[in-house]
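User: For my dataset I need records formatted as: sequence, then structure tokens, nothing else. Please produce one.
Assistant:
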Amino acid sequence: IAMKLMSTIGGASGPLVSSFFLAASRTEGVNEPWTPATVARLVEDGVDAIRKRGKADVGDKTMLDVLVPVAAALKAGAAAGEDPAALRAAAVAEAEKGLAATRDITARFGRAAFLGERAIGHLDPGAKSATVIIRAITETPEG
């Protein structure tokens, strides 16, 4: 998946999303049946890879404004023993909240960074893409 995404997604998102999947593929337990804890770890590993590659974090108006809270919600929910349906709902809720927060942030990374203050009032496209992906994954029958 990582290599296919790297060669087909344009802009800065290709290498970032590819880094997510490459790191997630190396997560301990990923080749075994997935538990909520496994999913939380692989998302956390993928998000850490995006952070390292992009040098951004929450508050920089990037996909990380969505992905970091989603990873934290999955980790907390898995540790609390929540069922998969509750974890899916929490992931979507955190994604939507993170996406909405990008509207009021000045872009500091990514393609929107050159807009500076003019980016305020607009959702970050990378955060929107991440939210769409999370929704699509959580809405599949397998979830």
